[in-house]
Specification:
It contains seven helices and seven strands. The chain is of the alpha/beta class. The chain folds into two domains: about 1-65; about 75-225, Glutaredoxin (3-Layer(aba) Sandwich). Strands 2-1-5-4-3-6-7 form a seven-stranded mixed beta sheet. Strand 3 (about 95-100), helix 4 and strand 4 form a beta-alpha-beta unit. It starts with a helix and ends in an 8-residue tail after the last helix.
Length: about 230
């Protein structure tokens, strides 16, 4: 009963915050909710209540973040052009935020490379590192050429407030699924596996997770298309 009432309280609180204005940016939504969220999550981790911590994350995403719009800001490309704005991507976006010091599972990048090769025509794949170019250089070579490897140096960015908000909110790796208008459909944490998990298991679980997110993007995009009666 207590958990049910907590669920109702969280859902109503997040819903009110996220619905004050239509089409709010992600950074504004996070700014309104992150302090209370962090306080509750820290309390959950302190007593090792990991289920509650996950419940709080899922509630934040479902009742506050989903439906907001990802901020448009300029980031640097590791290859090719020097910079690009998020609004320049015209397809639905699979965005993964990362840091070079994060150690991915053995099958994570190969799984992402595989889905990027398969769905490159329908989706823009983006890996955004919160890091310096020199640090990104060490890991960028591992990604398939259809994946846009971008980076943001927090000390060298004009959108400093937005960058700080995005970087220090949900941690990484975190995956964002955005439609063509940059509306956030879902936010998910990376697959958590033991560091020494065998490659085949790591690849399979990560591929399944990525493929599930891809289905969300494709199904949402298809649902927005008008239905045409071929018999008329």
């Amino acid at each position: 009963m207590v958990k049910f009432l907590l669920f109702i309280f969280i859902s109503v609180t997040f819903s009110l915050n996220s619905q004050e204005l239509p089409e709010q940016n992600f950074s504004k939504i996070i700014s309104k909710n992150i302090r209370k969220y962090n306080k509750n999550v820290k309390s959950a981790y302190r007593i090792k209540d990991y289920n509650r911590a996950q419940f709080l994350f899922d509630s934040l995403v479902k009742y506050a973040i989903n439906g907001s719009y990802f901020d448009d800001f300029t980031v640097k490309k590791f290859k090719g052009r020097k910079s690009i704005a998020f609004n320049e991507f015209k397809k639905p976006i699979f965005l993964m935020t990362y840091a070079s010091w994060c150690t991915p599972g053995s099958g994570e990048i190969p799984a992402l490379n595989e889905v990027a090769k398969r769905f490159k025509n329908e989706i823009d794949f983006v890996v955004l590192f919160w890091d310096k170019r020199s640090s990104v250089r060490r890991v960028a070579k591992d990604y398939e050429r259809n994946i846009n490897v971008l980076y943001v140096d927090e000390l060298d960015n004009k959108n400093s407030h937005i960058i700080r908000t995005l970087k220090h909110s949900l941690g990484f790796p975190t995956s964002f699924f955005l439609d063509k208008e940059k509306k956030i459909l879902d936010v998910r944490r990376g697959v958590i596996l033991p560091y020494n998990e065998v490659y085949s298991v790591s690849f399979s679980l990560n591929y399944e997770s990525f493929r599930n997110g891809i289905s969300l993007l494709l199904n949402y995009d298809d649902a927005k298309e008008p239905i045409v009666d071929s018999h008329n």
